[in-house]
Amino acid sequence: MNPYAGRKYVVVGIIVLVGIIYLIRLFFIQVVESSYKLTAESNARKVEIQYPARGLIYDRNGEILVYNEAAYDLMISPSQMRPFDTTDFCRILDIPGREVLERIQNARKYSMYKPSVFLKQISSVTYAVMQEKLYKFPGFFVQPRTLRKYPRNIAAHALGYVGEVNDGDIKQDPYYQMGDYLGVNGIEKYFEEILRGKKGRKIYLVDVHNRIKGSYQGGRADRKVEVGRNVVSTLDADLQEYGEKLMKKFRGSIVAIEPASGEVLALITSPAYQPSFLVGRARSENFRSLSEDTLKPWFNRALMAFYTPGSTFKTVNGLIGLQEKVIHTGTEFYCDLGFHMGGYSVACHMHDSPLDFRGAIRSSCNTYFNYVYRNILRDPKFESVSEAYMNWRRHVLSFGFGNVLNTDFVNELSGFVPDDKYYDNIYGEGHWNFLTVRSLSIGQGELGMTPLQMANLAASIANRGYYYTPHIVKEIEGEEQIDSRFLERHYISIDSVYFEAVVDGMEGAVNKAGGTAWRARVNHFTVCGKTGTAENPFGEDHSIFIAFAPQYEPEIAISVYVENGGFGNIWAAPIAGLMAEKYLYDSISRPYMENYVLKGERFVRE
């Protein structure tokens, strides 16, 4: 018997098996897997990404705040490049030859096969010339884009802007490719997926000169573009523009809310910038200039500034005192130009004395609310100061302080309301009391609130005990309603019956003799407000005011912060009064007050 006969069959079997594997793989490549065919045909195809028009943004009255304008990017695909006339190319684009070579090298480093932007946002005239001569420049093509345009150049921080994606954006969302744009900050960012739409794709057959000869596969491989959906914001464009005008010479913010819905009517931070600065070829230079500005126009004070609330917080402490029954509305305290206890003193200004609860709100008596806070922390219902303090803190948090409000804003901060452990770490457990934290009684000390939260406080009082989560989008195209969380009432932990006394005190602060906020008075309707002065260790105190109007069935709630503005009645109160009148009546009945804010002109008090 031949000893090698068995081996012969093994070898034949291996050869047959390998042959079968190759046949299967060849069938798979040629019939099943079309990507190989596409790769083989890549030199005869041109893939054109179709970018959707970005959704428009409107104000609450249907006025366009942001729309689109056509623009063109010159794209490059290095793998399809052939030698071309660089002289003519440079003449058309008006750029030097050295820059052309640098841009080509950068494109090759990015990818030989993936298209990338060679030159952004060429003019329509350049586009027309380039489109006619593209066949001379293989590997180049023009990509239509859109740029954002702003009819009124307002609300930059609220709207946000559109910028080019970076590596981090691409890694986070594969939808984007280098050279794409996405929303940055504000509405543009929060509602990016709604506004951006979905990119389309067209594949063409081209000749050796890169000229289109027809659609590839009859268009079966194309993908239809989906235009971005429009968004209706809650902003009132006229009110926003007026508020920006009033704040032109100040640093600070205005936030206006509709109490009945939580819709943000105006979101103003000053100094600001014009949204059009971040559009077009000058964007990079303007971006750098804004970033280097020492006045920090990037900083959104309305959402991110961290202030003590000052005397506006007396409304909160007063309500907690009433709820816990450590005082009642008829409770009076005598003020001897300040609160004096145990060797400690807190100064107060000249006013009538003694005062009841409503009078204390009207005159903003420091002494009264020191006594209120003392009674809260010494409430015999609780076994310790720490326990009473945490009960007080629970009430404070129910107003929306100390946490983010869960809005549709991108950069909202939470503020700060310390817990008992905070003071235990500083003074030792059981070694602190009312006198240690007495500054909280008048809204000073460790408290930190944002202007948005203070406007929400005004809305909560206006509603007599509840608020809707503030939000800036009123309607989204194609959706029946906005997010359900914006339709839910959030009730304060204070019984509604106690709010009317605070409302009466705030009405008196603006409209009665001895009131601290007379500059906020309006002829057509009743404004209810509370002044505040936040201590500032780095300069003059901040001027603060919260308000709502009218007194009954209120339509607007406002917070105004003017940094280094002094007492609340100096600048913040008149600004709030003017804003309320502009919104409710679209006219100003006291032009001298407007001139006082805008120009600093003196006037005689009525």
Shape: elongated
Oligomer: single chain
Mean pLDDT rating: 89
What would you give as the CATH superfamily of the largest domain? DD-peptidase/beta-lactamase superfamily
Broad structural category: alpha+beta
- Distance separating the two termini: 130 Å
Helicity range: 25-40%
Major sheet: 6 strands, mixed
Number of contiguous helices: 21
Q: Provide the number of structural domains.
A: 2
Can you tell me the CATH topology of the largest domain? Beta-lactamase
CATH class assignment of the largest domain: Alpha Beta
User: Under the CATH scheme, which architecture of the largest domain would be assigned?
Assistant: 3-Layer(aba) Sandwich
Low-confidence spans: none
Portion in strands:
15-25%
Q: Report the strand count.
A: 20
Radius of gyration: 33 Å
Question: What this model shows, in words?
Answer:
The strands form six sheets. Strands 2, 3, 4, 5, 10 and 16 form a six-stranded mixed beta sheet that branches. A five-stranded antiparallel beta sheet has the order 12-11-20-19-18, sandwiched between helices. Strands 1-8-9 form a three-stranded antiparallel beta sheet, with no helix packed on it. The chain has 606 residues and is of the alpha+beta class. It has two domains: 189 residues, Penicillin-binding protein 2a (Domain 2) (Alpha-Beta Complex), CATH 3.90.1310.10; 363 residues, 3-Layer(aba) Sandwich (Beta-lactamase), CATH 3.40.710.10. α13 crosses α15. The chain is elongated. Helix content is 35%, strand content 19%. β18 and β19 form a beta hairpin. The termini are far apart. It contains 21 helices and 20 strands.
